[in-house]
Specification:
There is one protein chain. The protein has four domains: 41 residues, no CATH class; 128 residues, no CATH class; 83 residues, Sandwich (Immunoglobulin-like); 59 residues. The protein has seven helices and 17 strands. The strands form five sheets. Strands 5, 6, 7, 8 and 9 form a five-stranded mixed beta sheet that branches. A five-stranded mixed beta sheet has the order 10-17-16-12-13. A three-stranded antiparallel beta sheet has the order 11-15-14, with no helix packed on it. Strand 1 and strand 2 form a beta hairpin. It is elongated, with a radius of gyration of 42 Å. The chain starts with 12 loop residues before the first strand and ends with a helix. About 1% of the residues have low confidence.
């Protein structure tokens, strides 16, 4: 039986001023059918609004283009459809023969996202959904409370393939469905990158002044295992490559590797994490020739200084040699000192 929410004792449930319902910290047991009623023109008739809350486990995504989507359908959707129709597992049989429910697995597409001019990418998500169809009424003689509960649960329009409540009622079916990710179609598009008022400015900036033939590995900040990382060079997207001979490579984890750096690699490299402009890296290249030239001129300057000092030293020696007759010998100096001592002794 439906129960009215006790807002005084239920701390996580709040009735907003606009009569909307706010649920804090959603839990698995919050799954269920929620309804509200309003009186129309103060008459006895009432209008009822119903909402189903389907709490799901953490959802994963496969991503790719339309060709990858076709492979996704062949790998995940079609085999699951066959299981619902033919599987001999007791849960599938119970669903088909006892509850008389045919489960259809479909993909629910969200609206195509606008083209992100900075990454030149547009995205569209496809969510895995279950749509129950009741083929015929159950045998009323064998109906019990559990069956009624399940039938009520399956009477809604659609469920997520990753529904936690479904896993409580049909563990085997839920386990099979948990292997089916949602899908994210990524398509290339053309659009203007709006960089105004600093909104799209990168959070991080870096600068490298590298020699020719150097190696560099760049990792985009704030990424996780599920992040979508895109690298651009001067506004053009760098695609992931498996060719080991390529000097510029973006691996599946979004790490950019540059090997044997050349002048053509100079430029502005930008990375985006889930469409957020995360980092700008400016790379400048200096040639090994310029380093050798600089080293050469440094040595020339040092040589000139040493040569100048040598000239001064030799000039000094030459002058000393030419004036050697003007200088006293050691014997003359000793003789003068002896005379000075004798004069002092006579004075005393």
């Amino acid at each position: 039986m439906p129960q009215e929410i006790d807002f005084l004792n239920e701390a996580r449930y709040h009735l907003q001023t606009d009569n909307s319902l706010l649920i804090n910290s959603i839990e698995e047991n919050d799954s269920g059918l929620y309804s509200c009623q309003e009186n129309i023109n103060q008459k006895d008739s009432e209008k009822v609004y119903a909402y189903y809350i389907d709490v799901v486990m953490v959802e994963l995504y496969d991503q790719g283009n339309t060709e990858n989507w076709k492979a996704y359908v062949q790998k995940f959707i079609i085999p699951m459809k066959e299981k619902f129709l033919q599987s001999e597992n007791e849960e599938y049989i119970y669903l088909r023969n006892i509850l008389r429910v045919q489960m259809n697995i479909v993909s629910e597409w969200e609206k195509q996202q606008a083209c992100d001019g900075c990454t030149q990418i547009s995205k569209r998500k496809a969510f895995c959904r279950l749509r129950p169809t009741h083929k015929e009424k159950m045998d009323e003689e064998n109906i019990n409370l559990q069956m009624l509960t399940i039938k009520r649960f399956l009477s809604i329009y659609q469920l997520s393939c990753h529904s936690l409540q479904l896993s409580a009622l049909f563990p085997k079916i839920a386990k099979d469905l948990s292997n089916i990710p949602n899908f994210l179609i990524v398509s290339h598009c053309k659009g203007q990158c709006q960089v105004s008022s600093g909104i799209h400015q990168a959070k991080y900036h870096d600068y490298y002044n590298l020699k020719e033939y150097a190696h560099l590995i760049l990792t985009c900040p704030e990424t996780t295992a599920t992040s979508q990382v895109i690298w651009l060079k001067n506004g053009e997207q760098l695609k992931a490559r498996s060719n080991k001979s390529s000097r510029i490579e973006v691996d599946i984890f979004g790490t950019l590797s540059l090997s044997g750096i050349a002048w053509s690699d100079e430029g502005n490299y930008s990375c985006f994490v889930d469409s957020v402009h995360m980092q700008d890296v400016i790379i400048k290249i200096k040639s090994s020739f310029s380093d050798n030239t600089e080293f050469f001129w440094q040595n020339v300057c040092i040589g000139i200084i040493l040569w100048f000092n040598l000239i001064l030293f030799c000039a000094g020696l030459t002058i000393k040699c030419k004036r050697r007759h003007q200088y006293k010998t050691l014997d003359e100096i000793l003789e003068e000192e002896d005379l000075e001592r004798k004069k002092k002794n006579k004075m005393f």
